[in-house]
Amino acid sequence: MANNPLDGAGYLMRGLGLISKPGIRPFVLIPLMINILVFSLLIWLGVDQFGALMDRFLPAEGSWLAWLRWLLWPLFAIAIVLVIFYTFTVFANLFAAPFNGLLAEKVERYLGGELPQQPGGIKQTMKDILPSLLSEARKMGYFLLRAIPLLILFLIPGLNLAAPFLWMAFSAWFMAVEYGDFPMANHGLKFKEQHRRLKQSRLTALAFGGGLTLMMMVPLLNFFAMPAAVAGATVFWHERLKEL
Q1: What does the pLDDT average to over 9-23?
Q2: Is the CB of residue 32 less than 8 Å from the CB of residue 226?
Q3: How far is CA 238 from CA 99, 101, 155, 171, 234, in A?
Q4: Which segment of 20-29, 150-159, 228-237 scores lowest on mean pLDDT?
Q5: Using an 8 Å Cβ cutoff, are 194 and 235 in contact?
Q6: Residue 164 confidence (pLDDT)
Q7: Residue 107 has pLDDT above 70, yes or no
Q8: Which pLDDT score is estimated for 14?
Q9: Mean residue pLDDT across the chain
Q10: Distance between CA 188 and CA 138 in Å, rounded?
């Protein structure tokens, strides 16, 4: 099946397995360290500010919607965690982008894929820093243009009931866009073409991003989410997206 959600989750799991391979493991170190730093900051922020955020977004005690607090609490808790996760993830990838591109290259070569002829190694990675940062800035703009209206929905009584579901769907899609960029950029594909290919396999992409969302919420496993996502997105590209 060309657009199978199960494949999306499978690519992520295969990516998690690939990052432990001897030929790939050295290129996981920097993305892994950046991810550990990001999630350590998230844990600190969550412990320090989570209760205040929940009180801000949930219906106030004594309001006519107060009876919904028990029902909305888990939904808003998940949504707020995702908002924080994805905001931090965007900035983490901004710093890790050149190294994630190199990791995607090594994974694709491990899978038997062919990349355009160009100098490899650390020197080329350093030359790729500016293009990688520009690509991340483009994705950040894409993220903000859609995330800000969704975040505003959390503040509008009534409409905020739909906000957690819309945010979860957008988050899953954005994760596919975010990590699908690394293997596709290695082949010179620009954002518009990357987006077109992902839309051609939308259900698979959403399942990949949804699976990554779950991985990011599992303690300890979330430290490996970034490199696993890069490797999994490379498998996705190698087996599906490059033919579209």
Answers
A1: 94
A2: yes
A3: 19, 15, 42, 23, 6
A4: 150-159
A5: no
A6: 79
A7: yes
A8: 96
A9: 80
A10: 15
In whole angstroms, what is the distance from residue 67 CA to residue 7 CA? 40
The number of C-alpha atoms within 13 Å of 145 and in the hemisphere containing its C-beta is: 6
Which residues contact residue 16 at a Cβ distance below 8 angstroms, ignoring those fewer than 6 apart? 215, 224, 228, 231, 232
Smallest Cα–Cα separation from 187: which of 224, 137, 242? 242
Report the alpha-carbon distance of residue 19 to residue 232 in Å, rounded.
9
**Between 80 and 157, where is the model more confident?**
157
CA distance 229 to 11: 9
**In the chain, alpha helices (H):** 5-18, 29-57, 69-110, 121-127, 129-153, 163-185, 191-200, 202-216, 225-239
Return the residue matching tokens 């100098």: 119
- What length does the chain have? 244
3-state class (DSSP) for residue 223: helix
Rounded Cα distance between 51 and 59, Å, is 14
User: Is the distance from CB of 129 to CB of 101 less than 8 angstroms?
Assistant: no
Strand, coil or helix: 111: coil
Across 112-128, average pLDDT: 64
Is the Cβ–Cβ distance between 15 and 207 less than 8 Å? no
Q: Which tokens go with 66?
A: 């107060």
pLDDT category of residue 37 using cuts at 50, 70 and 90: confident
Query: Given this model, what pLDDT does residue 121 score?
Result: 52
What is the distance in angstroms between the CA of the first residue and the CA of the last residue of the chain?
Answer: 14
